[in-house]
Amino acid sequence: MPPRTGTSARTGKFRAATIAAVLALGASLLATAPHAGAAEPDPVPVNDYCQGQCDDILPPGENGNATLVDILGNKAFGTHPAHSDDQLDRYDGLVAGHTGLTDQKLTDFFNDASFGVPKGQVESVTSPRDDVTITRDKVSGVPHIKGTTRYGTEFGAGFAAGQDRLWLMDLFRHIGRGQLTSFAGGALANQGLEQQFWPQAPYTEADLQAQVEYIRTHEGPRGAQAMADAQAYVDGINSYRDKSKKGRYFPGEYVLTGKIDAITNVGEIKPFELTDLISIASVVGGQFGGGGGGEVQAALSLLSAQQKYGVAEGTKVWESFRQRNDPEAVLTVHDGTSFPYANKPDKAVGTALPDPGSVTTEPIIYDRTGSAGTDAKAPVKAPAQLKKAQGIYDDGVIPEGSLPGSGSGAQKRGMSNALLVSGKSTASGNPIAVFGPQTGYFAPQLMMLQEIQGPGISARGVSFAGVGMYIQMGRGQDYAWSATSAGQDITDTYTVELCEPDGSAPTRNSTHYLDHGDCTAMEKLERTNSWSPTVADSTAKGSYRMQVWRTGYGVVTHRATVDGKPVAYTSLRTTYRHEADSIIGFQMLNDPSYVTDAASFQQAASNIDYAFNWFYADSRTAAYYNSGMNPVRPPGVDPSLPIKAEKAYEWKGYDPAANTAEYTPFAEHPHSSGQDYYVSWNNKQAEGYASAGFGLSAVHRADLLDERVSKLVEEGGVTRASLTRAMADAALTDLRGEQLLPELLKVIRSQPVTDPELNAVVQQLDSWRAAGAQRKESSPGSHAYTYADAVRIMDAWWPKLIDAEFKPGLGDDLYGALTANLATDESPAASHGPSGAHSGSAFQYGWWGFADKDLRQVLGQPVKGPLARTYCGNGDLSSCRAALLSSLKQAAAAPAAEVYPADDTCKAGEQWCTDSIIHRALGGIGQKAIHWQNRPTYQQVVEFPAHR
Asked: Which of 115, 241, 221, 102 has the alpha carbon at shortest distance from 169?
């Protein structure tokens, strides 16, 4: 069968040099699959109503598999397999190119996302079965899968997934099962990753199989079809797995991690199973489609506020920071429609706050041996020819913090953005959308581009690798759709009272709990992992056992006492045991006979159980729907705090065996059709729809979109290019500089700045603000920002000014508790951001909303939903000004080397490099750094001129 990872044709010298370098390993190492024939098949007619006005992009490139030869070539000479990096420069080029962008120039920066492959553009054709073809185009190598039977179509999708993402899928099925270290090595980051993911979705093999059967037997004909499609998809993956192993063109990472011997080919790539798809779905859905949780930490900050101010005043102060329904928050549905959900009850019942000082986090790791919990290395003696690839996973297959919500101290983050304008404000009269998921930057990406055409399926777009039976975000024949993480509250914390079966007094370590009055044993779930050093990961031999306790109210996360009684806090989310049920909604979105208009799209999206904001555009309507299994809670229950595990306070209709309950109906989810415009950047959805955590306040990064798009709509005549320019402009803008700096300068300039040096600093900041507060190169390739010093000052100042503004009034304890709920900063240079350093996504959560309200309160300006107290200078303008100036003076003196410390890519003081986006290598192929953009990873620009 043809290879997915053909060798780069950049130079003949590379091929010769690589062969010489690996010759000692034997000729078998060099085996690659035969190239596919490039004969062009007769095109299968497919209706495409976009007429060349649909574009997309997914850097760095479609090809995510690399043979050992490819990996060694990349490490030795910097070469790349074909189509592994050919979308990177176009994505990066929009930074400089967006200002002069026209509709005609869009394909300079995006792929043509039309259906099919034009004659003359066919690079290869593969037929893994007689009833399906996989055609790859010359420009980007995207697979265009066309089947004459349903089984063949899905088999082809699985085969293409194997071609493009075999190693990545293998990684993620092991991450989901909590077996990453045993599979890929014991690097400290690998240990941390499985310790963070597995406790969120711990399953036995029986649990995973039960979820397969649930879909097959509880979702009607569509459920049965979905599992048949999934089986065909798995069969396709396994077909490629088998052929690539026998043909010796499998991913080289299997050799470097000791799974397969390069010379003898002895070893195994384990077959994929349907349960692997459930495991992968638990990682993807849990990270990008979760919402809620964190109620224990919220309770701790509430207790701290009550301790400082007393119960009544402390609660008032805490609620003003919690901002469940900030009237100044930017909204996606901004026409005044309200969708009440998860709000603060007038009189709460069933709340179970811990006794002060009693909370401890439930331990996960036991029985450590060797390098467990350490970064101890014991490099193996690698053949000379593999030296260039030695240690590629010493920092983990996924470096710590690279996945959204992972890493030390990380909070679960939603990402992605969307801009849509209805036809009444566009030049053509048709809606326009620029939207996509912001899922971090990896090489290869977590998602893959594909087109699937077959009976009942007609779509092009992206799917997460390993669950790509259907397109998850993309376009159909006459419509397109995308999503942003919504994050509404679908996870609650319950408080189970502990007991002992013999009636003796329980302790906080007890492993039985009261379930409706019965002393019931918790279920112990365990995973024992061990590892030894390999060429790829030099981590010394080690092992440990992971353990969690599962109850009828979810998995134990903390222990404490409440009113002196020992309790365990548990986490229960509605999608637990239902990780892949959303497959029904995706199946509908891919079905051209189902989605025919905005209303049918919304119905399809309502079948997706995870918390997402879904957006839609066809030639007539732009629309929106918020999906998620929102549980119906009893009146008076406060979902923002721990809840007593008693029948009266459970979700309505709750069945612990199946983890099912009653859910809020379609009409109660935020939705809209035909609004003048929509923006989303993980902001508040609508009035009354309470935020699940801290940070949806008066200033949010979605303001960067809202202000730009509302201005375009007011002017009218919006085009694809003008809406893309608005997105790209926001993607380069520092939220603090645009939204907060004007108020900061008003406070500072309330009196003349008499210190000449400090006044010059203020002038620098003001000049940067007036120029747009952007973090942008002075010229393409300069690797230096136009306003580099102003950016440095802001980066140094922000954490200092927040400390100076709030810490004196709140006190150390309460300030520390609140910053544990919401970090103060998330600049591009902040390694504590949602995906660690070099992750692109920035300014999602921080104290900008708090600072905005507080400064306006100091200035005497009107504030809706004010903070309960004024903190800067204790409300005195002169004292506030002095605090800001003092912190600014400290920041201005901070050298660049201090503000931007060195990391494994950048030297100390390298500002542009520190901000830059780096595609974290999940395999053996690395990529160059590119200019920072706060932008979707996969992005579509669409405008349909016609409809069926």
From this structure: 241
CA–CA gap between residue 413 and residue 684 (Å, rounded): 14
Distance separating alpha carbons of residues 55 and 71, to the nearest angstrom: 31
Alpha-carbon 83 to chain mean position: 24
d(CA 107, CA 113): 10
Q: How many whole angstroms separate alpha carbon 37 and alpha carbon 3?
A: 11
Q: Map 229-260 to HEC letters.
A: HHHHHHHHHHHHHHHHHHHCCCCCHHHHCCCE
> What does the pLDDT read at residue 400?
66
894-942 pLDDT tens trace: 999 999 999 989 999 999 999 999 999 999 999 999 999 999 999 999 9
Neighbour-count burial for 515-536, b at 16+ CB within 10 Å, e otherwise: beeebbebeebebebebbbbbb
Span between the terminal Cα atoms of the chain, in Å: 38
Question: The pTM is what?
Answer: 0.95
Pick from 322, 357, 624: which is nearest to 482 by CA? 624
C-alpha closest to that of 529 among 38, 184, 911: 184
C-alpha to C-alpha distance for 531 and 185, rounded to whole angstroms: 6
DSSP class of residue 945 equals -
> Please, what is the angle between helix 88-97 and helix 720-731, to 10°?
90
How far apart are alpha carbons 59 and 85 in whole angstroms? Answer: 7
**d(C-alpha 890, C-alpha 896), whole Å:** 13
Tell me what pLDDT residue 801 has: 97
Q: Which residue has the tokens 């903390």?
A: 558
The pLDDT tens digits of the residues spanning 387-404 come to 999 999 999 998 666 665
- What is residue 624's three-state secondary structure? strand
3-class DSSP assignment, residue 427: coil
CA distances from 731 to 95, 583, 681, 843 (A): 9, 32, 11, 11
Distances, alpha carbon 770 to alpha carbons 534, 775, 788, 884, in Å? 54, 13, 15, 20
Handedness of CA 602, 608, 613, 616 (dihedral sign): negative
Tokens of 554: 């979810």
Where residue 517 falls (left for φ over 0; alpha for ψ -120 to 50; beta otherwise) is: left
Residues 6+ apart with CB under 8 A from 837: 401, 829, 830, 831, 903, 914
What's the pLDDT score for residue 39?
Answer: 41
Between CA 181 and CA 287 the distance in angstroms is 20
Please say whether the beta carbons of 63 and 80 come within 8 A.
Answer: no
Of the candidates 578, 529, 569, the one whose C-alpha atom is nearest the C-alpha of residue 549 is: 569
Maximum C-alpha span of the chain: 81
Task: State the DSSP H helix or E strand holding residue 850, giving kind and residue range, or none if neither.
Answer: helix 848-859
Residue among 254, 271, 268, 262 at smallest CA distance from 31: 262
Backbone angles phi, psi at 737, to 5 degrees: -70, -35
Residues with Cβ within 8 Å of residue 860, at least 6 apart in sequence: none
**For residue 606, what is the DSSP state?**
T
Residue 290 has a pLDDT of 85
Determine the Cα–Cα distance for residues 234 and 230; give it in Å rounded to an integer.
6
CA atoms of 100 and 115, how far apart (whole Å): 28
CB 829 within 8 A of CB 914: yes
Let me know: does 436 contact 937? Beta carbons within 8 Å.
Answer: yes
List, as own/partner pairs, every contact residues 263-271 make where C-beta atoms lie below 8 angstroms and the sequence separation is at least 24, other chains included. Answer: 263/25, 263/26, 263/28, 263/29, 264/28, 265/28, 269/166, 269/170, 269/241, 269/244, 269/245, 270/170, 271/238, 271/241
Structure tokens at 57: 């992009």
Which regions of the chain are under pLDDT 70? 1-45, 399-415, 831-836
Provide the strand spans (E) within 357-490. 360-361, 365-370, 417-421, 432-436, 442-443, 447-454, 457-464, 473-475, 479-485
Residue 444: is the preceding peptide bond cis (ω within 30°)? yes
Phi, psi for residue 487 in degrees, rounded to 5: 75, 15
Q: Tokens representing 30?
A: 């060099």
